[in-house]
Amino acid sequence: MAGKPELITELYRRACLQVTSSPESWQAFLDSACRNYKCRFDEQLLIYMQRPDATAVLEYEKWNRRFGRWIKKNSRGIAVFETEITSRSIKYYFDISDTRAGDNERPVLIWQMQEQYEEPVRQQMRQMYDLKNTRSLVETLQETAEQIVDNHIEAYLYDLRDCIEGGDLAQLDEETVETVYKRIAANSVAYMLLSRCNMNPREHISSDDMMDIVCFDTVPTAGAIGLITSDLSEQVLREISRTIRTVQNR
Q1: d(CA 52, CA 108)
Q2: Neighbours of 74 (CB within 10 A)
Q3: Rounded CA gap, 40 and 44, in Å?
Q4: pLDDT digits (tens, 9 = 90+) for 75-116
Q5: Where are the alpha helices (DSSP H) in the chain?
Q6: Rg (alpha carbons) of the chain, rounded to whole number
Q7: Is the dihedral of CA 196, 202, 207, 210 positive or negative?
Q8: SS3 69
Q9: CA 69/CA 87 separation, integer angstroms
Q10: Are strands 99-101 and 69-71 parallel, antiparallel or unpaired?
Q11: Which pTM was predicted?
């Protein structure tokens, strides 16, 4: 895809409306976004539209400098905004599949949930979020999502209220908007956590649980649900990554 800012802006606009058009579209986006959880929401969305199978992305220079890897000939970069969606500058990410090892290659550590990590992660989540009576990692991740959304919802609601005009959310009263936003955010964060941890999220979070995503039918409201989902999922997934590394280093 051409990297002109106006083309990427239009791609972002279309992507916002596409991924919130149905529960299935939203779930498909979350399955992609969870693999690149350290990226901003707008980056995750543009990665999904251009390379939904991407598993680890970096800029050309960072692949070389940090990991001693080079970009393969004829690889096509993933165009994203340099800083934020209002930026007029574009940068390019390349997936690890676009790279090859150089003479000074260093390992790219991409964590995967394995059975020996499940209990340490469960205990860490229970301690961090003061969870009670979670019997499995699935239950723990779902309750973690509910707790972290409950802890942070007010800050994100403040921005949502400023952007609901012109869409379905504008037809709802303020209390219902808050209820819908909180429910979809908690389910979306839980879905991201379960997907990244290979817990088959669709067995635990159905399309019916995501039905209200269609209310986020404007670019600003899609951005609002995307932002809270991306931000809070990243917080938890970074902690899971740290816990796994601790276990590996024992």
Answers
A1: 20
A2: 6
A3: 6
A4: 999 999 988 666 678 999 999 999 999 888 999 999 999 999
A5: 5-19, 23-33, 41-50, 60-67, 115-129, 137-161, 174-196, 219-248
A6: 19
A7: negative
A8: strand
A9: 28
A10: antiparallel
A11: 0.94
